Amino acid sequence: MHLTQLLKGSALSALAVAMAITALPTEAEAQSRDRQEHLERDRGERAAARQERRAQRAVRQQRTERRAQGERRRETRRSVRQQDAHESRRARSERRHDRLKTTESTGNNRVNFAQARRERREDVRERRADRREDRRETQSRNRTYHAERNRSYVDPNRAERRAERIAERRRDARREARQDRRAERRQDARREARQDRRAERRQDARREAREDRRIRRDAYRDGRRAERRRDRWEDRSIRRDAYRDGYREARRDHRRARYYDGRRWRDYDRWDHRRWRDNRRYDWYRHRYHNRDIFRLGRYYAPYRDYRYRRLNIGVQIGNLFFGSRYWINDPWRYRLPNVYGPYRWVRYYDDVLLVDVYNGEVVDVIYDFFW
């Protein structure tokens, strides 16, 4: 049994060896065939690449030749144009020289002027013809250039021009930004200057108001007694004189006055600027303390453009533009002022209030710093 197994194993091994020996040449042949096909394919691809490179080289050479031809044609046209321009300038200078000689030799100015005009017209026609010819050449050159140009053309200066355009746009943007910043700085400077001027005016107004209040306070302290004493003395003198001439008639004449309203004379009582201040109904100062908003009337516009504030006293006469209807206080009781009669009107003057006789412009009563 062992012998039969051994024979079977040896037979199988011999068969396997025979099959392997027969399979080796077929695999080698297949590998050699694949190698040859790969080499042939590489040779074909290299040949195609060489042909493509040769075609591209030929196209580039043709482009270079066309560019060289175009440059030569442009140089030729430029030289011809320069020669024509030089000849035309020389001809014009010769004609001008001949014209000057003709003008010097002949005395007929009209003929010379007509000839000069004709020559100038001929020069203008020649220049126009030259410009038309240049335009035609430029247009034909552009048409030829666009016709010869193909889709595969790449401008070598395209990147440079694009960079120049980008740089120019950036410069324009920077210039505009600088201009905007300058304009903003100017506006800020003007705004600050206006604010400074307004602040200075407010400070000046406050300073003047404080000074006026101080002056009034000092004047009231220093002159109130003297004023009362003087008023009493005047009243005594008036009463004494009135008693001599008839006390009752003098008293009535002193208190009464007349004015003409355009149709007839009217009688009225003279205004007493001390009596109403003692009445508590007309305590405008306390009323202003509790009602501040109604005493804020806004800016005062003087009737004259260059007019400045001047402190007015009782007895001063002012122009009729200062007590026009737009300055009247139509509701005096709103500000706790007494109602007026006859020719009197309460009038606003800056932050002061004046009682004015509208028929002669006399200020009969005044309240300083009445409004805010």
Give your account of this protein's structure.
With about 375 residues, this protein is mainly alpha-helical. Among the domains are: about 25-145, no CATH class; about 275-365, Nuclear Transport Factor 2, Chain: A. It has helices at about 1-105, 110-150, 160-245, 245-255, 285-290, and strands at about 255-260, 265-270, 345-350, 350-355, 360-365. The strands form two sheets. It has a three-stranded antiparallel β-sheet, with no helix packed on it. Strand 3 and strand 4 (about 350-355) form a beta hairpin. Helix 1 (about 1-105) runs antiparallel to helix 2 and helix 3 runs antiparallel to helix 4. The longest helix is centred in the N-terminal third of the chain and has 104 residues, at about 1-105. The termini are far apart. Residues about 245-255 have low confidence and may be disordered.
